[in-house]
């Protein structure tokens, strides 16, 4: 049998299921419900907690030699000049400061400690992720009052291959993930501010690819 004929036949066999998969994906994206209007700008009760990769300054009042700076390790721990392997990830700066005071109390009389976070990464549960056809797919620390428009500006918008109005927001609620349709084309290309919405820690934005 002619090799070119065999190759063409193989391509046709692969193309059919691929086309069916693409159609199914686009249909699934387009069928996602919109976020209820009453929840579009519902902001969470949010307190930033320290995460691996955060840069911190530990200031000990009256004991400059004990003050230090450093980065939280990937295992979520931090070492000071007196205490090794303090758990930092998952705590607020105030909680960590009290933990350090307690540990330093064995060496220093009534220590007063402040923890200042200078570089923010955050724990995964408090990050916002953008994947797919974003100009710069990224994982960013959530900021209070952060909106979908803010996020899209931070990642540089969408690529030319994006199907913005078929994009999806994945949000965790009571331990379960829910998916909602987004109108990114309307927001970014038409300036339709009604397509904007407030984000929450842990949100994932999936920007679909246009196949046509």
Description:
- The structure is a single chain.
- With 212 residues, the chain is an alpha+beta fold.
- The chain is built from four helices and ten strands.
- It has helices spanning 3-30, 93-104, 148-154, 184-188; strands at 55-60, 68-71, 77-78, 86-87, 113-119, 127-132, 138-141, 168-173, 176-181, 204-207.
- A five-stranded mixed β-sheet has the order 7-6-10-8-9, with no helix packed on it. The protein has a three-stranded antiparallel β-sheet with strand order 2-1-5, with helices on one face.
- A hairpin with a 7-residue loop joins strand 3 (77-78) and strand 4.
- The relative contact order is 0.16.
Question: How would you concisely characterize the structure shown here?
Answer:
The chain has 4 helices and 10 strands.
Outline the secondary-structure elements:
Blueprint: H1 3-30, E1 55-60, E2 68-71, E3 77-78, E4 86-87, H2 93-104, E5 113-119, E6 127-132, E7 138-141, H3 148-154, E8 168-173, E9 176-181, H4 184-188, E10 204-207
Parallel strand pairs: 6-10
Antiparallel strand pairs: 1-2, 1-5, 3-4, 6-7, 8-9, 8-10
Portion of residues in beta strands equals: 15-25%
Q: Give me the strand/helix succession.
A: HEEEEHEEEHEEHE
Counted beta strands: 10
**Shape label:** elongated
User: In angstroms, what is the radius of gyration?
Assistant: 24 Å
Distance between the termini: 34 Å
Number of helices: 4
Structural class: alpha+beta
Mind summarizing the main beta sheet? 5 strands, mixed
Fraction of residues in H or I helices? 10-25%
> pLDDT below 50 for ≥5 consecutive residues: which ranges?
1-29
Enumerate the strands of the largest sheet in spatial order, edge to edge or round the barrel: 7-6-10-8-9
Mean pLDDT: 86
